[in-house]
Amino acid sequence: ANDYAAVIEGQRAGNIHIASYGSASFARARLTGVKTDAFANDINADGSTGYYSVFFVKANSPYKKVEDLKGKNLGLVDPNSTSGNNVPR
After folding, report:
1. What angle do CA 18, 6, 48 make, to 5 degrees?
2. Which of 17, 36, 77, 82 could form a disulfide with 23 if both were Cys (CB 3.0 to 4.6 A apart)?
3. Which helix (H) or strand (E) covers residue 63, if one does?
4. What is the pLDDT of residues 37-67, one digit of tens each?
5. DSSP string, 18-42
């Protein structure tokens, strides 16, 4: 599939039986009626779960803190991506 929406629709249609979701896309699938269950989760080396989302700006950018980005346009990825879209918002 090209994006999370296609995975969600593929599962809804019964064409995809196993998928890898992030938190946001899994929730969206469940909220929109896809009958799917989680059976595995990533575990970090220290036993914790989760991850960090990171913003990158050019070194000579005037933006030094997240607060500096308020009201600015951001180039985000798939709307169903947890770390690439939902967390930055």
Report:
1. 50
2. 82
3. none
4. 999 988 999 999 887 777 788 999 999 998 9
5. -----HHHHHHHHHTT---------
Cα–Cα distance measured from residue 12 to residue 5, given in angstroms and rounded to the nearest whole number: 10
> Structure pTM?
0.66
Q: Are 26 and 4 in contact (CB under 8 A)?
A: no
pLDDT value for 51: 76
Phi, psi dihedrals of residue 27, rounded to the nearest 5°: -60, -45
The span from the CA of 45 to the CA of 69, in Å, is 32
Rounded to whole angstroms, how far apart are CA atoms 68 and 63? 5
Distance, CA of 17 to CA of 36 (rounded, Å): 9
Q: What whole-number distance in Å separates Cα of residue 34 and Cα of residue 60?
A: 45
Alpha helices, H only, the chain = 4-12, 23-31
